[in-house]
């Protein structure tokens, strides 16, 4: 992480619903959020394909009701996932655009573009959003942007990270680092607050609660006065956020429509679903500041108008399970980081969905009435943290007061499955999630055959098929001892760049093999 690169480097928060780009301005000694051509600091992560062109951002979002089947959003929910994943199958039911099974189990988005049917892999679509962010930055800065730090949810697994990185490369960017979103927010918080005179401790424990459009990330960190940011634990859910709250409202409205119109179901009408989605998201946002929000749509389906009024209490009731889940995951993160709630000095809330009053109340109550820090602008904190790291990695941080040092943890457990007679079933965890990096761990295996296959996985599930395959290698010609067994030492070694070296050595003969897996 310390290697410096040439050229302008920006930070990009690639969000499920919105994206944001930022740059560290060394002359002004601050981060600048890069506005888009409409002058907004956030750009919808939305794409629209039509007969003549591709629209990205605001223009794409604005025409969704007219062209729902060819307007694509939520790509972050697809990236790195398999088509058959239950979450993908579930999400698909709510999308007005078509998703099919593509190559090697990957989902593929099918749209009509310039009069032809086109299929796009998730990383190709994310690349279009990233390209737009790059071009917007170039227009604003008046120079080419070559490098970027891109943020990802802390909970993203290897495949999701690989494909996000691939999207960056396809967009013409040199991806300096994939930074966990809550860590990015913590860097922004750290740089904003390091000179705070009220900071009377050497080290502060900060919990970052980041509830966005598609993902929930929670991170427990310590920040020292010297600028060392040490991540203690990360947690969350890659499928929990504002979109789920929208879906609850949409489902409620679908049922209301059914009730009012003797069983008429609008589910098969993508245009109606698209319009309802826009109206529900707006009502949800309104409910953060009002007690009632109307939803009124003319000619929603078969010429029938739809009109209802949602109360804040109803909204909270519809989403109670999701809200409770956030608190459970928060508790889990504290447990993983071996901390009690009283150890936490600051609770920083970021992400658009953390504006929901009920969520704020629940977090405050969890921390026994502690006042939450909302000073970080959710829309820009993540991009700001990424911009600060980008400046540091590209050597454009001479004027940064404090040298930010980042000590991270691994977001998902790493382990192996040992294939015996061609069968591999379960994964044994070697390095559990939330272990600080760098780290290493050795285990000894007793093998009763002359060949052993070591298969490396990432994930939290006991069954290998539910985890992500990272790589495999074999040791052959093993020498069995008098007990018909050979002793094999397997070593996992993970460096600060997230590069994993897995080696296996037969102790009696010193025969050794290893593989290197990059970007965990
Ligand atoms: P983010 O990914 O952090 O940009 O968050 C985007 C999500 O926040 C979307 O689901 C928005 O609908 C949601 N959001 C933005 N503002 C509000 C608000 N005032 N109240 C509730 N949700 C909001």
UniProtKB/TrEMBL annotation:
InterPro entries named in the record: ATPase_NBD, Heat_shock_70_CS, HSP70_peptide-bd_sf, Hsp_70_fam
User: Is ATP-binding one of the keywords?
Assistant: yes
Q: Does the keyword Transmembrane helix apply?
A: no
Write down the superkingdom of origin: Eukaryota
- Keywords per UniProt: ATP-binding, Nucleotide-binding
Q: Which SUPFAM superfamilies match?
A: Actin-like ATPase domain, Heat shock protein 70kD (HSP70), peptide-binding domain
PANTHER family, per this entry?
A: HEAT SHOCK PROTEIN 70KDA
Protein family according to the UniProt entry = Belongs to the heat shock protein 70 family.
Protein name per Swiss-Prot or TrEMBL: Heat shock cognate 70 kDa protein-like protein
Supply the source organism for this entry: Tanacetum coccineum
């Amino acid at each position: 992480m310390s290697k410096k690169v040439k050229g302008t480097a920006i930070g990009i928060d690639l969000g499920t619903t919105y994206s944001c780009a930022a740059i560290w301005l060394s002359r002004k000694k601050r981060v600048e959020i890069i506005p888009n051509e409409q002058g907004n600091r956030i750009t919808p992560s939305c794409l629209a394909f039509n007969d003549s062109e591709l629209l990205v951002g605001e223009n794409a979002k604005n025409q969704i009701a007219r062209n729902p089947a060819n307007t694509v959003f939520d790509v972050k929910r697809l990236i790195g996932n398999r088509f058959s994943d239950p979450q993908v199958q579930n999400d698909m039911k709510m999308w007005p655009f078509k998703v099919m099974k593509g190559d090697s189990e990957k989902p593929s988005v099918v749209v009509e573009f310039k009069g032809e049917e086109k299929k796009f892999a998730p990383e190709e679509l994310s690349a279009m959003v990233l390209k737009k962010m790059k071009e917007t930055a170039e227009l604003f800065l008046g120079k080419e942007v070559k490098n970027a730090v891109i943020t990802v949810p802390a909970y993203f697994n290897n495949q999701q990270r690989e494909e996000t990185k691939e999207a960056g490369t396809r967009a013409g960017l040199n991806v300096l680092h994939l930074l966990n979103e809550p860590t990015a927010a913590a860097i922004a918080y750290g740089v904003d607050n390091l000179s705070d005179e009220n900071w009377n401790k050497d080290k502060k424990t900060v919990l970052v609660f980041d509830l966005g459009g598609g993902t929930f990330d929670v991170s427990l960190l310590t920040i020292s006065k010297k600028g060392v940011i040490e991540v203690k634990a990360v947690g969350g859910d890659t499928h929990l956020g504002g979109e789920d709250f929208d879906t609850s409202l949409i489902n409620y409205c679908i049922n209301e429509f059914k009730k009012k119109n003797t069983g008429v179901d609008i589910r098969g009408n993508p245009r109606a679903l698209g319009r309802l989605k826009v109206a529900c998201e707006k009502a949800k946002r309104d409910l953060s500041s009002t007690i009632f929000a109307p939803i009124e749509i003319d000619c929603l389906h078969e010429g029938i108008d739809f009109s209802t009024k949602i109360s804040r209490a109803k909204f909270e009731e519809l989403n109670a399970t999701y809200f409770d889940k956030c608190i459970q995951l928060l508790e889990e993160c504290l447990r993983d980081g071996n901390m009690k709630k009283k150890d936490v000095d600051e609770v920083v809330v970021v992400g658009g969905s953390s504006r929901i009053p009920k969520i704020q109340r629940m977090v405050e109550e969890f921390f026994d009435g502690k006042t939450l820090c909302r000073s970080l602008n959710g829309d820009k904190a993540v991009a700001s943290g990424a911009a600060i790291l980008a400046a540091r990695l590209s050597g454009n941080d001479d004027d940064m007061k404090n040298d930010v040092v980042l000590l991270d943890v691994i977001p998902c457990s790493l382990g192996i499955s040992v294939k015996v007679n061609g069968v591999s079933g379960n994964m044994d965890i070697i390095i559990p999630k939330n272990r600080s990096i760098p780290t290493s761990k050795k285990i000894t295996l007793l093998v009763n055959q002359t060949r052993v296959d070591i298969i490396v996985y990432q994930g939290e599930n006991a069954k290998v098929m539910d985890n992500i395959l990272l790589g495999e290698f074999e040791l052959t010609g093993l020498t069995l001892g008098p007990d018909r067994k050979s002793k094999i030492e397997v070593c996992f070694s993970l460096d600060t760049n997230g590069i994993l070296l897995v080696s296996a050595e037969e102790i009696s003969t010193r025969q050794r093999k290893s593989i290197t897996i990059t970007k965990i």
